[in-house]
Specification:
By secondary structure, this protein is mainly beta. The chain has one domain (1-70). The chain is built from no helices and 5 strands. Strands 1-2-5-4-3 form a 5-stranded antiparallel sheet, with no helix packed on it. The protein starts with a strand and ends in a 20-residue tail after the last strand.
Length: 70
């Protein structure tokens, strides 16, 4: 993973996070908790989208990351 891409769509109220290249998306799976997982051809999760994500306009969107070994 070279980089993580985070997109906030204020009009659509979605937060989209990609761990891999979005062009590798093959299938999406909705979890039932307003989260959609984007997967590649092997079934590996390469991103997710949080539906109905709303934040106050006055505060900037801050994103924190933590790397863990698996």
């Amino acid at each position: 993973m070279a980089s993580v891409k985070v997109y906030y769509d204020r009009q659509g109220n979605t937060l989209t996070v990609w761990f891999e290249d979005p062009r590798g998306e093959h299938v999406c799976e909705e979890t039932g908790e307003e989260v959609v997982l984007m997967k590649d051809r092997t079934g590996k999760v390469i991103g997710f989208e949080k539906l109905n994500f709303a934040k106050e306009q006055a505060t900037p969107l801050q994103v924190g990351f933590e790397a863990v070994e698996v």
